Amino acid sequence: MSTGRSHRLDTGGQIDRTRPLSFKFDGRSYTGFAGDTLASALLAADVRLIGRSFKYHRPRGILTAGSEEPNALLELRLGARREPNTRATVAELGAGSPSSSQPMTAGS
After folding, report:
1. Which positions ≥6 away from 80 have C-beta within 8 Å?
2. Rounded to the nearest 10 degrees, how much is the dihedral formed by the CA atoms of 6, 11, 14, 15?
3. Tens of pLDDT along 32-87?
4. Nearest partner of 100 among 43, 24, 14, judged by Cα
5. 81: DSSP letter
6. For the chain, which residues make up each domain, given as ranges?
């Protein structure tokens, strides 16, 4: 859930603060910057729930900052170009690219 405030430092890092990018996650609109990963943009927007565990549907959030991230698996894009099981910590933020948490299926 987003509270509308940013948890981002004013300076430093590898992002370009002069190039804001709009994106959607689970149907909600957010703003990040060029150079952000989906994980960093979502954390800056105070989004903590990224998905749920497959078996018990327990809440899952971002745990690490690297490619070994076990929890933040997302789906990028929609339709025929859908890309499941993408780690939010390595997916670069793209303008207008819709993303969503992994869908839960019955019996999983």
Report:
1. none
2. 50
3. 999 999 999 999 999 999 888 888 888 988 988 888 888 888 888 878 888 888 88
4. 24
5. G
6. 34-97
| Mode of pairing for the β-strands spanning 16-25 and 98-101 | parallel
User: Angle CA(94)–CA(100)–CA(106) in degrees, nearest 5?
Assistant: 155
**Whether 97 contacts 36, CB under 8 Å:** no
Residue in the structure block whose two tokens are 């991230």: 69
Q: Are 17 and 29 in contact (CB under 8 A)?
A: no
Instruction: Give the position of tokens 């999983």.
Output: 108
The C-alpha atoms of residue 73 and residue 85 are separated, in whole angstroms, by 5
Sign of CA dihedral 25, 30, 31, 36: negative
In the chain, at which residue ranges do the beta strands (DSSP E only) sit? 16-25, 28-34, 51-52, 59-60, 73-76, 83-87, 98-101
Least confident of 1-15, 16-30, 77-91: 1-15
